[in-house]
């Protein structure tokens, strides 16, 4: 079949899910991840609708170095009875400064009458004028035919007329949208076949998941002639969500046998899914196909016996292809591959004698059982390796810390102060600092104590902080996981802490962030570590895992 283009709308459609609100830094980081994954188009947002999206487009132009992806601005057709050259929606698309734009227009006559409150003829003019004007400005233009399948079922001729208007305007691709998410796969297939008889330019699919058919509809659309598929990572989106690009990408590669993604890109799929869930502050769905924790998990009885002998007995795909891993509950087969998987794209200092690899594996399992997750916390993971290898020398030792939050001292404003006592070598440092919150105060006090010894610390800054409750049934006494993102120039890393006490979890993540930033420059390539591992004798063994 023809080339397939993958279009991600996590930063716009995905952010419409309840509870998700990406910062500009989040959006920039996600865009970089999607580029590394090999996504063709990244929809950055709706310029003009809010200041955050305009800031994203401005910073994307100056800060992102994308190797594969194009950033796309999203907007609607011109307003009814307005001049396209002065329409605020259209001008905002141009101001975004992208080389591609997506224009959404109504293809359902019901919406034209009841949402736009205009005539059918004017709606067609709005579509053609907007697409044509953006093409004149040199943009690649996608036309999103909103509510197309509902419109096609109720007024086939008018729905097709909207596509023809976009085609006359010069649209590069026309995307058929199942906006209400109620279409069925065989219905989707039939409609695509019929539309192809009338529209000669490339077609795309944009599916919502209200009938739990979004991925199925996306795949059958591709099999029926679509060359462009839209979705979001993890299926994030309004109501029941959008088509999950993680499953779509895996199906394109594994089921449709289209060589679009490299093996290296496919192996990043699970990590990208988990990192974006961390940035969205949404608990990962353990049953998510391909990338979920349970996607390749087997529990007891005949299944375990068979899959250990031959994985194909109960697995339709290899977990390693998508960067996931096989899990066998009760006891888990362990070997150097488990560690090598965890060490993808990592760098380590002082490789030395690596005879403690199995200790590393045991420690990882223990910590993950307690609630740690290292996919978004590369800094903490590398420090764990160093510590377990006994090649780690602490830069300082905590003697104690105290945080005071006072509501009365400054009236309506909270007063927050952190006091820290620590040792650097034989020197004892006892410092205090204020902050706009407890973690900021601890960060300031820690820096105040250490900057005299480690001047490099001045360039290291905390850029994000997230908290996740791990067991909600325990209420305010629940165990929490804190993720901190830190940056020094172009280098960015994550660290994690877990505890029933949010301040202790924050302290663990904060200390890791600083230690990793100070130690990172001395680390050589992963290739050296792999050579050391390959030289060691290995035997597969069973390591008992706690039940529960």
Furnish the topology, listing elements before pairings.
Elements (H helix, E strand, L loop, with lengths): L4 E4 L15 H14 L3 E5 L5 H13 L6 E7 L11 H8 L4 E7 L2 H8 L3 H17 L3 E7 L1 H7 L1 H14 L3 E6 L6 H12 L6 E5 L6 H10 L4 E4 L13 H10 L8 H4 L2 H12 L16 E2 L2 H9 L17 E2 L2 E4 L1 H7 L14 H14 L7 H11 L8 E14 L2 E12 L2 E9 L2 H13 L10 E9 L10 E9 L2 E9 L2 H18 L6 H9 L6 E4 L4
Parallel strand pairs: 1-2, 1-8, 2-3, 3-4, 4-5, 5-6, 6-7, 7-8, 9-10
Antiparallel strand pairs: 11-18, 12-13, 13-14, 15-16, 16-17
Helix pairs in contact: 1-2, 1-12, 5-7, 6-7, 8-9, 16-18, 17-18
Structure commentary:
- The chain has 548 residues and is of the alpha/beta class.
- The protein has 3 domains: 7-259, Aldolase class I (TIM Barrel, Alpha-Beta Barrel), CATH 3.20.20; 262-329, H-NS DNA Binding Protein, CATH 4.10.430.20; 336-395 and 454-548, Double Stranded RNA Binding Domain (2-Layer Sandwich), CATH 3.30.160.340.
- The chain is built from 19 helices and 18 strands.
- The strands form 5 sheets. Strands 1-2-3-4-5-6-7-8 form an 8-stranded parallel barrel, surrounded by 9 helices. A 3-stranded antiparallel beta sheet has the order 12-13-14, with helices on one face. The chain has a 3-stranded antiparallel beta sheet with strand order 15-16-17.
- Helix 1 runs antiparallel to helix 12, helix 8 (185-196) packs parallel to helix 9 and helix 16 (378-388) crosses helix 18.
- It is globular, with a radius of gyration of 26 Å.
